[in-house]
Amino acid sequence: MNSIEIKQDFIINEKKTKIISGAVHYFRIVEEYWGYALDCLKEVGCNTVETYIPWNYHEMYEGDFDFESYGHDLIKFIKEAEKRNLFVILRPSPYICAEWEFGGLPFWLLEKNCKIRSSDPLFIEYVERYFDILLPKLKEYQWTENGPVIMMQLENEYGSYGNDKEYLSEILRIMKKYIDVPIFTSDGSWKEALTAGSLLEKSVFPTGNFGSNAIKNVKNLVEFMEENKIEAPIMCMEFWDGWFNRWDEEIIRRDPQELKSAVEEMYNLGSLNLYMFQGGTNFGFMNGCSARGTNDLHQITSYDYDAVLTEWGDKTEKFHLLQSLFSNEVKSEVTKSHTKKAFKRVKYIGAASLFENLETVSRVSKNKWPLSMEKLGQGYGYIAYKSNIGPKRHLEKVRVIEASDRAKIYVNNKEIATQYKKEIGTELSVDLSREEDNELIILMENMGRVNYGSKLLAPTQRKGIRGGVMLDLHFHSEWTHYCIDVEKSTQLNYENFTGIGPSFYKFELFVDEPADTFVDCRGWGKGCLLVNGFNLGRFWEVGPTGYLYLPAPLLKAGVNEIIVFETEGKFNNELKFSKEPIYIEIGEKR
């Protein structure tokens, strides 16, 4: 039977072991490429892989657990690591941050009247129900049961959010029903955060998160452990080797040589986990959002992170520098980068207006007042709110009250305004031209919920229209809600396109042999793109990225269906591909 002990070092099977780990998120990489990323991890000199487990990825809708569909098979990922004799660190904490939508928390919790990340019995009830499904699946893969999983995380950077020790104890209680391997916390390495986020009396050991100044940060961690009489290894659970990026901001890069020096400093002091080894992609609508003061700054689809491997798996200069640090011998290259092509054989099939097809692509409901996304059971993407606002007249004031994140306002299918957080609530003056039955449509987009900090509790994490719509000085009633499912766009008739406005554009891509490629998103405004029904994620002309990465496994030999949902009314009958990523120079800010 395997053993692991937490002393001044990690003692694995009675042998002192330094953990050299890299973060690979199975949910951000197509599953056909999991093995490649893990091979590269071995090649660089790591002995461990670390991954978060996002709750909202596996229970997106309440009670609907998914651990088997494409990309969701966590056990398959663990087995791929085991094949390569890699240790595995799992971070199944209810909250993960990770620049992921709502920090991994399911959107439906917002309708449950419970205080998240606390000992609120209702929140604990939902966590326990989820863990009672998840943790039994992991039990047999623990190191103590001859599997590869050597440790698991209790909570993530809780010291930067709360200090509810009863909450941490409850999470530990649930985990201990199934988990025998060591359990840790990870926090910023300053005393206040370590104190608030730890659970020391329960033999849960602390680790630190930082990306530089290792000597100083480790000193703080050591002093904290000495003060609290903790015997545990020194480990940086997240050594940040790059950073994430947001729309309308320049790409953040880190100098490879400087990184090597910073990593070497940490490597000489203890164990570490490189965050990220390969960042991957925020497919679909799962990008998170930064909160800075009163601003919400939504993150881009690419989670390249300027990591050791690129978003698409190429080795960077950082890879070779770290390999020289971690490996005692020069290794010949084992893994080869994925083949890339700029496909040319693309046929434009046609377009279909959103407004003319709302019934087909939506789940429809009516209510006296506009309802939020969460009340409608729509976690992500778009909702169109439609109402008859009466006969011909001049309306001096039209206002959307309390809504997030982006409102596109139309009267009789003509765009009147686009409003973001700062503009929502601003009065609009509108002339209604029809003698009767003028139609108001408000297309709301959830651009991603906050993933870190106090704003997890903010009303703005409830998306769509929370308040209402005012005409003159009164709230207008009688609304039809269209909860849009972009995947239903495959059912549309793409002939006889009659207008511009939010629309779906259909293309057929012919492929002799699948290869990685990059969709050139320049010329499109804002929206998302589906390949054979798979949502690659969001694009936006503000940059800094002008591409969507398309992995080869999502393509097939022959004809591939590509549908672009574009909300800005920028008609485009061309779809181009590139062998390399495309970046957009950041211009004037909105």
UniProtKB/TrEMBL annotation:
Record GO biological process: carbohydrate metabolic process
Among InterPro entries, the record links this protein to: B-gal_1-like, BetaGal1-like_ABD1, BetaGal_gal-bd, Galactose-bd-like_sf, GH, Gly_Hdrlase_35_cat, Glycoside_Hdrlase_35
The residues responsible for catalysis, as annotated, are E157 (proton donor), E238 (nucleophile)
Any keyword Protein biosynthesis?
A: no
For this UniProt entry, the molecular function terms from Gene Ontology, in alphabetical order, are: beta-galactosidase activity
Keyword Calcium set for record: no
Q: Where is the Beta-galactosidase 1-like first all-beta domain?
A: 370-484
Please, which domain of life does this record's source organism belong to? Bacteria
List the keywords (alphabetical). Glycosidase, Hydrolase
SUPFAM superfamilies named in the record: (Trans)glycosidases, Galactose-binding domain-like
The residue ranges of the Glycoside hydrolase 35 catalytic domain are 10-327
Pfam families attached here? BetaGal_ABD_1, BetaGal_gal-bd, Glyco_hydro_35
Q: Which residues form the Beta-galactosidase galactose-binding domain?
A: 502-560
Q: Which PANTHER family match?
A: BETA-GALACTOSIDASE RELATED
Its family remark reads:
Belongs to the glycosyl hydrolase 35 family.
Protein name from the UniProt record: Glycosyl hydrolase
UniProt source species: Enterococcus saigonensis
Q: What is the lineage of its organism?
A: Bacteria, Bacillati, Bacillota, Bacilli, Lactobacillales
